[in-house]
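Regression check, zinc ion case 369:
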Amino acid sequence: MTEHMRAARLHAINTPMVIEEVERPVASGNDVVVEVKACGLVPNLANVLNNWESWYPHQPLPPKPAIFGLDPAGIVRAVGEQVVAIKPGDRVYVNPLRSCGACHACASGEQAKCDYFTFCGYFGFNEKSLDVYARYPGGGFAEFMSAPQGAIVKIPDNLSFVQAARLGYLGTSYSALKKCGILAGKSLVINGATGTLGVGATIFALAMGVAKIYAVARGEPLLERLKQLAPGRIETFSNAKGYAADWVKSRTAGLGADFMVDCLGAVADVAALKDAMMGVRRGGRIINIGGTGSDMALNTKWWMDNSMQLIGSAWFTTAEGMEMAEMVRSGVVDLSILEARAFPLDRVNEAINGAASGDGGFTSYVLEL
Ligand SMILES: [Zn+2]
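Current build output:
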């Protein structure tokens, strides 16, 4: 007999999600079924729901009626017949990154480079994502979801489901920091430092041994709150007051910082990104995780002459999720400084609007089921 579950589904863009009874997924093969206990809502979700099809028509949404939900955490309730190392009852985070699992990139642990790279419950990167959505149609705005075992991160007892439902953007920041290289004794510009990605980058960069963070954002109250995480290692600057590049150079004997992670959002002014980049020193490495959606005029001779490295980084691997889980378990990072605003599934539309309100990276929005 088919079992059912409650889910929030989107039937058309610019309409509210509707709570409905739908078929519950069944575990088979290499898949597991997770009972969702919490699912995070990232600030960009409202953009994806309302604008993505017009902004980025090459990036398909899951077919409607669609169950969104990017950042789920919960309890494994069933496993497919091929699954041996994951058991019913395991507390887990579900990495929404889906890929083909069979290409050179996937076999190398570089799933983000797979041509089938797709965010379950969010959006895909090309038409191949529709093949992925046919297999994994549902995200975390439902009582149950299925996922491949390779997407499962077991979480420690000292990480709540609500906290784990924030691992997506934390992982995006953590993966970007790893791409900088060894941070110990080095300096880092975090641009857009007070948003969700920026606060995550700050927390993990401190844990990973960075010597100095130059945190750039607009609003001073949140910058001041950020500085309190490590007053001796974080300096802050509001780029409403001038050029970030000039400020960073003034703090580094004219050289600039070793690395930069850009965390500006989709609709940010790309001039602020370019300004901050010029605060990175010769030979520096600049990682973009914010995804500002604009063209940028860049002096290519500056790029070459100074041996600059410009790197784009989308999301993080399940292995990196496991590393973060262990950092929380061992106390290397403390996520209790973050606040969550939790909503029940019935209030999903309210939660989506709240997540889009942009009240800063210390606060996250989450559905609690
Ligand atoms: Zn692949």
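Comparison notes: Residues 99-103, 105-106, 114, 116 surround zinc ion (CB under 6 Å). Residues 4-166+338-368 form a domain with the Quinone Oxidoreductase; Chain A, domain 1 fold (CATH 3.90.180.10). No diff flagged against the previous build.
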